[in-house]
Design a protein that fits this description.
Blueprint: E1 2-6, H1 12-15, E2 20-22, E3 26-30, E4 38-42, E5 48-54, E6 59-65, H2 74-90, E7 101-106, E8 115-120, E9 123-128, H3 131-135, H4 137-148, E10 154-157, E11 174-177, E12 184-187, E13 190-193, H5 209-218, E14 223-227, H6 233-240, E15 245-250, H7 253-266, E16 273-277, H8 280-286, E17 293-296, H9 308-325, E18 330-336, H10 343-357, E19 361-367, E20 386-392
Parallel strand pairs: 1-4, 9-10, 14-15, 14-17, 15-16, 17-18
Antiparallel strand pairs: 1-3, 2-6, 4-5, 5-6, 7-8, 8-9, 10-11, 12-13, 18-20, 19-20
Helix pairs in contact: 2-4, 5-6, 9-10
């Protein structure tokens, strides 16, 4: 097996079980590993410290194990997948009769860096974010079938846009197991079409499930605006919560088509809902003051730290428009899914927007990702979803 040797002192983060090794920490390598191959990592004193997938880039190794005697084979994938499933079962998420939509594997949060697996009814959607997970996809799929014990029939692989483009892997999306066209899944009793073929991420934003459920509790009698609606998750929950009116807005016409399908799936011929394919900022400019419950759930404004300044300006601008227009006594659900934006940065941007509007604003809830998107305590970078629920006088 290839061996990587660290510079003196660069093993300290690994002693704290951080799962990343950066390229600048490497002193030398024995051999020339290809992207995705497994390497052993040693300190400058020739002491074994970790084993993981190698790749070219800032993060040179994603650690799979800190044990030298643990082989990366099918039994390894079985153990890790079983542990992930057991956690979802222990919190009651994988066995609810009204819910068959959840994240089974959340990368570093489940000690499987570079791998995401979402469950939608009888279909698992697998996504690789590293060359190593891509190369292991068939073995992982076999292990997943055994671990799920007949609860899934299909495994769809969706990694064309998530793998490092320089790795020359040429991934193709498609079924590794099965091939069903039944794409309807249930989340807390509501049904959704899951577009794993062409949709964003794995086809649905599973990470907003608990926040959608919270919004349902506030929706009764309100006029709701769901910006960046994508699949209309918040809209459908608001309708079940008794909203008088729900408007869904997204710049993508395809997203609006999917929105209408999902609303019709749960509330056919319900005249409370309308959807609009329009730019968010333009819509906010001319929408008037008819809404007293607004959801701002934009795509990531900053995918890396170099874009942080512009991202924070975007959050300030977006939230300022909402503060200006929302009715007195209104409630604002506002989010950032940018990992590069810290909780403190996001709160400061929103607070600045509130001050610009001159409105009196109170925090009702501080939100984050749900339990099936766990944060590894040794990898705080895994906490990416930030949200605030605000009462605006």
């Amino acid at each position: 097996m290839y061996k990587l040797y660290l510079k003196p002192g660069k093993e300290e983060s690994l002693k704290r079980f951080h799962p990343w090794i950066f390229s600048g920490a490497i002193a030398r390598m024995e051999g020339t590993p290809q992207e995705g191959e497994t390497v052993e990592v040693y300190t400058s004193k020739n002491e074994f410290i970790a084993k993981g997938h190698y790749q070219i880039g800032s993060i040179a190794v994603r650690v799979l194990t800190f044990r030298q005697d643990e082989a990366i084979d099918k039994a390894f994938w079985m153990r890790r997948l079983s542990a992930a499933r057991l956690m979802r079962q222990s919190i009651g998420l994988a066995s609810r009769p009204d819910n068959d939509t959840y994240r089974l594997v959340h990368g570093e949060g489940d000690n499987l860096p570079g791998l995401v697996i979402d469950i939608y009814a009888r279909t698992a959607v697998m996504q690789a974010h590293s060359a190593g997970m891509h190369l292991e996809r068939m073995t992982i799929a076999q292990a997943l079938q055994e671990v799920m014990q007949g609860q899934i029939d299909n495994i769809y692989y969706k990694s064309e846009t998530t793998l490092p483009f320089k790795a020359d892997l040429y991934p193709e999306n498609g079924f590794l197991v099965g091939g069903s066209t039944d794409n309807i899944a249930t989340e807390y009793g509501l049904k959704f079409h899951i577009d794993w073929l062409k949709g964003q991420k794995t086809g649905f934003f599973v990470d907003q499930r608990e926040n959608r459920s919270l919004l349902e509790r506030y929706a009764a009698g309100r006029h709701v605006l769901n910006m960046f609606c994508y699949t209309s998750g918040f809209s459908v929950y608001a309708m079940r919560g008794g909203a008088q009116l729900v408007h869904s807005v997204d710049s993508s016409a395809k997203a609006i088509d999917l929105t209408n399908q999902n609303v019709d799936l749960n509330f056919p011929d319900d005249t409370r809902h309308a959807a609009f394919a329009e730019d968010a900022f333009k819509y906010l400019d001319h929408m008037g003051d008819r809404y007293d419950l607004i959801i701002l759930d934009p795509p990531a404004f900053a995918k890396h730290r170099d874009a942080l300044r512009n991202a924070l300006q975007g959050y300030r601008k977006l939230n300022a428009r909402a503060f200006e227009k929302i009715k007195p006594g209104g409630i604002l659900f506002t989010f950032s899914c940018s990992q590069a934006v810290s909780k403190e940065n996001f709160r400061t941007a929103v607070f600045t927007a509130a001050a610009m509007s001159g409105r009196s604003v109170r925090i009702l809830h501080q939100l984050t990702q749900p339990a099936d998107h766990p944060v590894n305590i040794y990898h705080p970078e895994g906490e990416y979803l930030k949200g605030l629920v605000l009462y605006v006088e």
